[in-house]
Design goal:
This protein is mostly helical. The protein has a single domain, classed as NusB-like (N-utilizing Substance Protein B Homolog, Chain A), CATH 1.10.940. Helix 1 crosses helix 5 and helix 5 packs antiparallel against helix 6. The longest helix has 20 residues. It is globular, with a radius of gyration of 14 Å.
Amino acid sequence: MQMLFQWDMSQQDPPKLEAKFWKSAKGADKTREFANQLFEGAAKDVAALDDIIGKHCENWRFERLAAIDRAILRLAIHEMSSSDTPPKVVLNEAVELAKKFSSEESGAFVNGVLDSVLKSLTVT
């Protein structure tokens, strides 16, 4: 999530951003690999992810989303659709990230958007 946020703010080349990020962040090799895969996938698919987010943000324009909320939603939607992590776990983690890094209201907002996305993924 932090790498996605930094990327959204700076549009740096993902490998360069990862190298800078891991100089100061700690994580086991498997954690780094998983985080890098999620970041790279979400950055690569940002247009499609933003389209999904826009469709599920009722009464809210995508442009008005806080950058941190965008990063959380992009990451969660990408992880839900591309990993073996149970979607409900991804949703709960995203809500906790929103509460910690954004605001209490963002937690409810992220929950609503991701719940709508999850329902649409299970219907198709």
